[in-house]
Write a structure and sequence with these properties.
CATH architecture: 3-Layer(aba) Sandwich
CATH topology: Rossmann fold
Number of strands: 7
Distance between the termini: 39 Å
Order of helices and strands: EHEHEHEHEHEHHE
Strand order of the largest sheet: 3-2-1-4-5-6-7
Length: 242
Amino acid sequence: MKRAIVFGATGGIGQDICRDLAASGWSLYLHYNSKEQFAMNLAQDLFDKYPNQDFMPIQLDFNSSDEQLTEFVQNLLPVNAAVFAQGVTNYGFLGDEDLANIAKLIRINLAVPIKLTKLLEPQLMKQSFSRIVYLGSVYGGDGSALESVYSATKGGLTRFAQAYAREVASNNLTVNVIAPGAVKTNMNAIFSKNTIEKVQEEIPLGRWAKGKDISYWVKTLLDKRNSYLTGQTIYVTGGWLL
């Protein structure tokens, strides 16, 4: 049985990733932080559709200590894949930013995913094939004013994946980044209708992405046949900011 852990499974994109992977035969750990009931409902919904697969909600706060992260990974059943779909941002000038919030963005978007990757490595290496996918951002390649720390963390994921992929390639472990452009999720609900419309006008395909536009590429990267693509960042932006 092939099994993946999806970090941020209750997020706007994470939900669609879980649904697409479940439809492709994956059993899943559905990671959540505070949305326990949502994760339970999602797991039940997936189990009703795919009763021969396992769907297990699992809680982890990315503020956890290194010891707690280690214990979390040690308690997992073996996984073939890890998808890091969690992420936070803050919109504003760096000069106005709270130092604690800067640390939070770096921890959740970059530091903890790297730590969890290190901890997951031994069991991923034991599989006949294994995959890691990080959700980056178009701003990791073309930094956004007023989201400078967020841009730095997503750019960091791109460089980390490029380097780490070279370390583990001989073990049939591929490591890649999917970098969305503008996606209709709660993270972007802070923007006004006018701002959303202006961004849409700048996108050559003429619309914001849906979660399924991103989850399709995650599913493709996790496919066993996709064994030769590694260390790459794939920009899924509708032609925006390229």
